[in-house]
Amino acid sequence: MAFSITKYHFRSNLLLRNVHGEFLDELSTITEQISAEKKTVIYKEGSLPFAVYCVTKGKVKIEQLTETGDSRIVYIYTPGEYFGFRPLLSGERHPVSATAIEDCELQVFDGKCFIDIVKRSQILSFNLIEILSFEFNVWVNLISSLSHKSAKERVALILLILHEKYKGADSKSEITMSKKDIASYAETTEETVVRIINFFEQEKILKNQGRKISLINNHLLEIITKGF
Prior knowledge:
The protein has helices at residues 21-29, 85-90, 111-120, 122-147, 151-165, 179-186, 190-202, 218-225, and strands at residues 31-36, 41-43, 51-57, 60-65, 71-77, 82-83, 97-100, 104-110, 175-176, 206-209, 212-215. By secondary structure, the protein is an alpha+beta fold. The strands form 3 sheets. A 4-stranded antiparallel beta sheet has the order 1-8-3-6. A 4-stranded antiparallel beta sheet has the order 2-7-4-5. A 3-stranded antiparallel beta sheet has the order 9-11-10. β10 and β11 form a beta hairpin. α3 (111-120) packs across α4. The protein is elongated.
C-alpha cells in the first residue's frame, strides 16, 4: 500500500470554504489579531473555552497530559489552520493545552458570537461537521500507527509529518523542533530520538544541525515507517 501523509493532517483550513459573504463579514467583526511569543500558553488543558483560533504565522503545539504527568504532543497547527472550536461546540473544557512553539500571530474569534454564526450558517455548520469527522479519522490513524510501531518507525513517521508541517512555498522543509518535542510527538524518550536521528544521519537519510533537521531521503523514511 502506498504511503499517504495526508491521513495524518486535519482539514481545519477549510473551515470558511464557500461560507456566504454576509457571515464572513460578521466573523470579521468578532475577531482580533494577537501575538504569542514562543512558549506562550494559549490555553490550558481543563480550562473553559471562550474563543476559536486561527494561526496566521508560526506554529502551535497541542499537548495532553498522560497518566504519569508527562505531556504528549498530539498535533501541530500551522498557518491557515483553525483550532479550539471542538470544546465550544460540545460545551466542555479544553481536553488539551495549546502552546506556541515559535513566535506566532493568531486570529482570535469570540466564542459565543462564533457559535451564534454557526447556528445561522448551514455551510459553516456543514464545514465543521466535515472537519470534525475527518479529525476523528486522523486520531484513529495516528493512534493506531504509533501503538503498533517500533521507536525507529514512530520517529520516522513523525519526521515525515513534521516535514509537511514545515514545508515552505518552495516545497523545501527545515524542521526546527527540539528533540524533546519530537520525542513527545513520537511517544518515546529524548535520548531515543537523539540516537535514532544520529543513525538516520549516518545513513544519509537526513541532515541534522542542532535544532534543524532536513530530510534527504523521504522515500527511505516511508519504507522504515511501514516496518520494512
